[in-house]
Amino acid sequence: MPFLPVLHAEWLKIRTLRSLCGTLFALCAVSTVFSALAGTSSTPDPEFDPLSHALSGILLGQIAAIAFGAMAVSAEYHGDALRLSLAAAPRRGRWFTAKLTAIALPTLLVGLFTTAASLAAGRSAMGDAAAGLTAGQQVRGVVGGGLYLMLMALFAAGLTALLRSGTAALGILVPFILIVSFVIGDAAGGAVDFMPDRAGRIVMHATWDGTPGPWTGLAVTAVWTGVALAAGAWSVRRRDA
Fold first, then answer.
1. Is 50 helix (H, G, I), strand (E, B) or coil?
2. DSSP annotation string for 62-88
């Protein structure tokens, strides 16, 4: 079967699952609301970063993006769904590529809208504290934030395909982001800056310390995602449906 019909079939699966559509809605709603709430909080100097502060809701919203990627793949491992998918599209590499494309495109579109809405809500709540943000910084934050959310969704999709379980993938990724980044991160030294979540979020900062810059950090996240997807592709090709 050609690629486009396979992609269309995978998109129909995602579009018709209410839980997946609800997860994308949660991504936007949670990020925007918490960015607005963070904008009303105090803005301590001298380390205050207005761009990061305005987009701080993305820290929680990304969990919905991760859940979307994991759930979209894990649905194939319920019942005989994967067997039926591969019967319709026997070339496993083509099918997995179509699945990832059907995950990446809506996540990117919703991610771009989410970061734009979060930035607008955060800036509005911050008032004069956000006056120093340049147009270039804001564009970088929105575009980079959308790409970051897409990469994290794909990272979760690849890990789910490897583990063949969305629960297992979420059980690893969510505690990793919440514990390593927020609890262990500052005490572990510069190596944590090269973790997939910490590195990618640099693009949503106006200023930064450490080796990775905004786009370099996003590239680090892309490398982590590529490794997870390669492992997931290996699992899809080599293991029984």
1. helix
2. HHHHHHHHHHHHHGGGSTTHHHHHHHH
pTM for the structure as a whole: 0.93
What is the C-alpha to C-alpha distance for residues 156 and 160, in angstroms, rounded to an integer?
6
* Nearest-10 crossing angle of helices 18-39, 92-126: 30
What CA–CA distance (Å, rounded) separates 211 from 219? 13
Q: What single string gives the DSSP state of each residue in 74-142?
A: HGGGSTTHHHHHHHHS--HHHHHHHHHHHHHHHHHHHHHHHHHHHHHHHHHHHGGGGTT--HHHHHHHH
Q: Which residues contact 197 (CB under 8 A, 6 or more apart)?
A: 62, 152, 176, 177, 180, 181, 221
pLDDT digits (tens, 9 = 90+) for 77-92: 887 788 888 887 888 8
